[in-house]
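Now for a concrete sample entry.
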Amino acid sequence: MHVLGIDTSCDDTGVGIVAIDDDGTSRVLANVVASQAAVHAAYGGVLPEQASREHLSVIDAVVGRALEEAVLAIADVDAVAATYGPGLAGALLVGLTYAKGLAFGLGVPFAKVHHLEGHVAASVASGAAGAGPTPPFLCLIASGGHTVLFDVPAWGTYRPLGRSLDDAAGEAFDKVARLIGLPYPGGPALAALAAEGDPEAVALPVPLARQEGFDFSFSGLKTAVAVRLEREPDLRPADVAAAFERRAVDHLRSVAQRAAAALGRQDLVVAGGVAANRRLRSELGDAGLRVFLPPAGLATDNGAMIALAAAQRLFAGTVDADDLRADATPYLPLADAVARPRDATPRRG
C-alpha cells in the first residue's frame, strides 16, 4: 500500500510517499521538499500570504517529483494524507484542499494528520523494527513554531507537561541569528557558527532556573543576547552564537531530564526541526535516557512524516469518511488529535 503525504503548514511544500508492508511496517520511498527560504529571506521571516501563493505555484511539480523518486505512477497511490493543523491558515488550505481533491479523484482514502503527530511519527517510525520506544515515554517537540513536552502513556495519547511561555526554540534561534547578522533561516546558520565559538566567552542567564514545573522560556535569553550586543558590539559573533546555543540546548535537556525523573520515564522521543541540532543530539545522548531522534532529513517539516503518521492510522483502522470533511485548523493542540486504539502500536521501518 502506498500513502502520499502532503505538508504545507508553513513555508515549505513537502510531499512524501510511504509504503506499508503487510505486517504494518512503513518505508519511506520519497521525500521531496520545496523550500521557500529564499522567498522570505528579504522579510526576515515568513510572509503568510506569499507562502500560500508559493505553495500553489509548486505543489503539482513537487507531487510529480515525489512520484518520480518513488518510481510510481499516480494510479499506484492507495491513500492520500495532509496536514490539517496547526499552521498558517492559507498555507494549510493549499495542501489540504489539493490532497482531498486528489483522494476523491483517485477514489482512495484520505487521512487528516496533525502536524505535530507527523513529527512524532518521523521519530518513532525511523528506527528498525522492535528498536523504537514503547509507551509510556516522554516526547519533546522543538521546532520553529512549537516547543512542548508531552507524556505519552499510550499510543495516540498526549498529556501536556510543559510548553514555551513565549518564543518557540526554533523561533529564538532564528531571532538571535538575525541579531548577529546571519541570514534567514537562522537556526542552521547559528548552529554552524556556534561550532567555531567559545560558549564560556559570553555570560547569559539560565532560563526559568528556579521553576518547579516543566515549561520553557527563550524570550529572556534572546533579550539578554540583544542587550549584550548593544553594550558590547565588538563581541565575537561565534562566541555569542555558542553561548546562546549552549543555554538553549541545556534548557531543553534539563527540563526533559527533570520530567523524566519526576515521572519515572526512561525513553524520550525528540521531534521537530531543532532535533537536527548537533549539540542537542549530543547532550541528550549523555542525559541518561534512551533517546529516539528522527534522521536529519525527517527532522524539519516534510511530507514523508505526514505519510508515516497516516500509515499508522490506516493500519490501526482510525481513518474514515469524516477525515474528508476536515477543515484547516490553524490552532490545534496535539491533545485534540485523533487518538489511536491503545493496542495499535506504530510499525517502524
Summary: The first strand starts at residue 2 and ends at 7. The chain has two domains: 2-124+298-336, 135-293. The mean pLDDT is 90. The domain at 135-293 is CATH 3.30.420.40 (Nucleotidyltransferase; domain 5).
